[in-house]
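Q: What does the assembly look like in three dimensions?
Context provided by user:
Components: two
Sequences:
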Amino acid sequence: MSGLGPLTVRELKKWYRNPVFFITGLIQPFFWIALFGSAFDITKFFPGASSLILGGAPNYITYIVGGVLTVTGLFTAMFAGTQIIFDRRLGPMGRFLSSPIRRSSIVFSKIISATIRILPQALILVIAAILIPNGLKFVHGFTILDGLVVFTAIVLVSFIFASIFSAIAIRMTNMNSIFGIVNLVNLPLLFVSYAMFSPSMMATWLSDVAKYNPVSWSAEAIRMVIINGTLTTSQWIQVGQWLGGLAILAVSLLVMTAVLAEKEIRD
Amino acid sequence: MKVSTMIKTNDLTKIYNRNIRAVDKLNIEIDEGEIYGLLGPNGAGKTTTINMLTTRISPTSGSATVAGLDINKNSLEVRRAIGVVPQDLTADEDLTGRENMVMVAQFYDVPKTVYRERIENLLKLVDMEEAADRLVRTYSGGMRKRLELIVGLVNDPKILFLDEPTLGLDVQTRTQMWNYVREIQKKLDVTIILTSHYLEEIDALANRVSIIDHGKVLVTGTPQELKASLKGDVVTVTFKSQEEVDQMKGIKGVIEVSDSGPNTARIKVENADSALPTIINFISEKKLSTTKLIVQKPSLDEVFLEYTGRDIRTEEAVDSRKMMMNLRKVRK
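A: Here is the predicted structure of the complete assembly.
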């Protein structure tokens, strides 16, 4: 009755069968970690102060892995909405709307498939970060629990942004509008966050705004477990706050998207 | 024995933007086993009617029962009981024909063992077995329409809605589609409601038809009844000037003379064979110069003109533009 299963399978088939879509998505993490890791490496300018800037990380790559993982999720999730517009313009939406399925399944299939697409990207990104010279180092080890924190943060970020952009696309018919919105907000979301730089490196007002950016929460939570390995109780509380914030936001946005989809989605 | 009613509408109305009455207090009743045609020009309200009956949009006022279920109260159950072949192409081009069918079968929770066999039979029915495992984007226009036709049947519906099933197809493919529709009706025991603005299509397929214009039913009957209701034949005469058309209106012994396009008079007579000499005599007496003279026995074209006051042929220009749009959609 819900239709979520077959619709999600459809999305995934469209992904892994399209070689360009599939392979570019998997190569992208290599580029990002290599380019971001070297282009934004601020420790070069302050040779003495790197431990202050990096919050205890042995090098800049280790510091930004959390940020790049989050941003990979963000950028992939933002395009979830475009698939809704494609379905509307190319016809399948008409079939979905006349079938006895929940209308929110149409939207949720995009959100879930976007999240699934992000996971191999994230895995490849971590492997790439370890392989490159002076790359990711787990100085204090890495536990299964840490892995779970990384996974949860990425999934929640994906839910948050895939929901927002799907909700925007629910009544939209023009592809250019959504591309415009994506381009308008993607770089601000990246740079007004702690994904690339620590608060101490940012202008005060920027750092104040970045505090409320969910991209910061995810980047900081992942960074915390990667740098420290085994966390102290107070560090766990901090991670719990970040993940909790992400979870509350994700759930409210998913509920909002479901309600909107049931009521508003149309051909 | 009274056959059961499959669809009944009660003052069904849809108003867009507060003042466009797309469907205006429409009342139709369709019995089990019928192929029922909704005939009307573009914008007459056929697709809006279908969209309401298939619960894709909700009516502004009025109600309808489909397979005994209220479209306002039981929309999910209505959708489960019916099959829909929308006007636009809906298959996903990046999947194969079979994958599209499986996906839709799963929408209806059809068990795997059941849908496997059903899909095989449906593919056979429209001669698409060997194309089934190719991506839909490699299909021709006719194949895509055939796929749409059987996708609408994967849930073994009691009622099948066909919205302009042959829009944009060439004449040969269209005739082929008609055969498939007849075959489906015969073998699957399904009630079909069909919209079209091709009169030949309605004439060839429907056992009963409602002519719709401006969202209202103008007349309902079998194609034979409608043709017979015209009571007479039509002689169309084209002159060199409008003045001569007006002179023609002075003729006695015919039912009616009316305007029908530039410099053309439409003369309704009881029997064209016996009225023709009278008309020709009148023309030569008044020394009118004719460029064309056509005798028409009743056809649905004439029925349509009689009830809507418009020639359905003039709609073709709009139609071909729509077809181009559809094609562009396909190409993309």
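Follow-up: Chain A touches chain B through 26 residues (CB under 8 Å).
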